[in-house]
Specification:
The complex is a heterodimer of chains A (about 475) and B (about 100). Chain A is α/β, with parallel strands linked by helices and about 475 residues long. Chain A contains 15 helices and 11 strands. Classes of the chains: A alpha/beta (about 475), B mainly alpha (about 100).
């Protein structure tokens, strides 16, 4: 028998609108399953009883015109929620209760969504395995002691384990697409400027974007439609005409030109990813699109560029955590001592490492050699994509260079951890939209994803391509409930 | 280039993060491996390239200089580790 929690967002919405199930039933189902899934450690803050209360209120006075009518949704704990603790996975924000709401979450509540809880993530979204969180590792529902990816690891795990019908994450260098790939789910990073950054705990402001994480492409289109909006409160929000992504979704991609960048064939990439990519190319051809070989010559410089730009912005953004205005404070002998102890005790090792990198590359005498250099290379990386898009409509690559790895496998080597994001980082540097679609499994049965990268503001095309491929791939996630 | 212990301590001062000797040694090792990786960028000649300073190709919008939120003192002070109802409180800075 199909449980409510197995359903997709669109199936649940249809059932609620047809009055076959109530918001209360739906919410209780997800809460009950979440209660039995504590071992996964996906929640930092639960909002279960309040969610059920809100669901009851929705059922008493339902509005079926909404896009998320009484739908319970858990969100990454990087989105500020008014009156509900928001930690960003950090000790330094362990007691922080925002007095305002992020625009993206407000958009969800305005469409009838109900907050189930706040999901675990890497500290300040800095990580690719959810292991930097102050609140501990998250287990990947795919298999015991596997990482769920990161930084949106609590989001990907909660979604794959059917603890929330859909969720949202943030993506600075791959933090939506990589965990989606590791958990057999769909994750989309929108064009920079599509979703408001207002009320999202900042990591690297020129790269950060919120985006939907869902079980299939249709749900992804629905949720993107809800969260993408022009917002005056974010000075980099862009006022462009947004599509009705879900109603304009089509499997007809005949004549679309899809680029295959040769530079994404990296050394040491497992054969199964190589063959997954080839299969993806066949699927796209079968859908009637045309395959074109392209070159993105500066791809190999994307990660080094990212590891200058992102830490530089992070070191500035995280200067605000000083133990004065909010968050954790450690006592010091004087003001400076208080700052230094607060930040030393409040931040975890990876965050401190990145603040140090950022401080160094921005410091006097090194700015030109590192930060300015990186901004110039970023221009070249963007130009690679601009040139490619004169010939193609979208680009197909693998999402990640490997499947999910074991907890603690990569924690001692920061650079090997950073290599996880090799295929996703260029997309953030160029501000483009990208979607990860589950496309197969490796020899262990762990999911692998393919990434489709689009032109700026052309989320509709990558959704359509993913939608048509999804049908051909017919991927089914194997979740055994091993943790129950 | 290599980042020595002295540099690590200097950066930690700038970043206002105290590090002890053991941590500083570990950080020096980590930072060196990261910077070896970063220095790949030096292969590229970028003398004719304009730096990319904003990915969103729009100019910043102007807005009226007007008050949007009033009487939010309580809200602003609500999360502070120490306040006296009117101000944030910090350790004494003037002797």
């Amino acid at each position: 028998m199909t449980e409510i929690t197995d359903l997709t967002l669109n199936e649940i919405v249809t059932n609620i609108k047809k009055k076959k199930i109530s918001s209360t039933e739906v919410t209780k189902s997800f809460v009950e399953r979440s209660e039995k899934s504590k071992k996964l450690n996906v929640y930092i803050t639960e909002n279960f009883s309040s969610a059920i209360e809100q669901a009851k209120k929705f059922d008493e006075n339902p509005n079926y015109e909404l896009k998320l009518p009484g739908i319970p949704i858990a969100v990454k704990d990087l989105f500020c929620t008014d009156g509900i603790k928001t930690t960003a996975g950090s000790k330094i924000l362990n007691n922080f209760i925002p007095t305002y709401e992020s625009t993206v979450t407000q958009n969800i509540w305005d469409q009838g969504g109900i907050l189930l809880g706040k999901l675990n993530c890497d500290e300040f979204a800095m990580g690719s395995s959810n292991e930097t969180s102050f609140f501990g590792n998250v287990q990947n529902p795919i298999g015991e002691n596997l990482v769920p990816g990161g930084s949106s690891g609590g989001s990907s795990a909660a979604l794959a384990a059917n603890l929330t019908p859909v969720t949202i994450g943030t993506d600075t260098g791959g933090s939506i697409r990589q965990p989606a790939s590791f958990t057999g789910t769909v994750g989309l990073k929108p064009t920079y400027g599509s979703c408001s950054r207002f009320g999202i705990v900042a990591f690297a402001s020129s790269l950060d974007q919120a985006g939907p994480m869902t079980k299939n492409v249709k749900d992804c289109a629905t949720l993107l439609e809800v969260i993408s909006s022009f917002d005056k409160k974010d000075s980099t929000s862009i006022d462009f005409k947004r599509n009705n992504y879900s109603s304009e979704l089509t499997k007809n991609i005949k004549g679309k030109k899809i680029g295959i960048p040769k530079e994404y064939r990296v050394d040491g990439m497992p054969l199964e990813i190589e063959s997954l990519w080839s299969k993806g190319i066949e699927y796209i051809k079968n859908c009637g699109a045309e395959i074109i070989d392209i070159s993105l010559p500066h791809t190999k410089y994307a990660l080094p560029t990212y590891y200058i730009v992102a830490p530089a912005e992070a070191s500035s953004n995280l200067a605000r955590y000083d133990g004065v205005k909010y968050g954790f404070r450690s006592l010091g002998e004087n003001l400076i001592d208080m700052y230094e102890k607060t930040r030393s005790e409040g931040f975890g090792e990876e965050v401190k490492r990145r603040i140090m990198i950022g401080t160094y590359v921005l410091s006097s005498g090194y700015y030109d050699a590192y930060y300015l250099k990186a901004q110039k290379v970023r221009q070249l990386i963007k130009k690679d994509f601009d040139d490619a898009y004169k010939k193609v409509d979208a680009i197909l690559t693998p999402s990640t260079p490997s499947s999910a790895f074991k907890i603690a496998e990569k924690t001692n080597d920061p650079v090997s951890m950073y290599l996880n994001d090799i295929f996703t980082v260029p997309v953030n540097l160029a501000g483009l939209p990208g979607i990860s679609l589950p496309a197969g499994v490796d020899k262990n049965g762990y999911p692998l994803g393919l990434q489709i990268i689009g032109k700026p503001f052309d989320e509709q095309s990558i959704l359509n391509i993913a939608y048509s491929m999804e049908e051909k791939i017919n991927f089914k996630n194997k979740i055994t409930n091993w943790w129950m | 280039m290599t980042i020595d212990l002295k540099t690590v301590k200097h950066i930690s001062k700038l970043a206002r993060i105290s590090v002890d000797e053991e941590k500083a040694n570990k950080l020096a090792g980590d930072l060196n491996s990261i910077f070896t990786f970063i220095e790949k960028l030096n292969e590229l000649n970028t003398s004719d390239v304009q730096p990319l300073t904003s990915i969103a190709e729009t100019t910043l919008r102007f807005r009226k200089d007007e008050i949007k939120s009033e009487n939010i003192r309580e809200k602003i002070l609500k999360n502070s580790p120490e306040n006296n109802e009117d101000f944030f409180v910090v350790p004494k800075v003037v002797e």
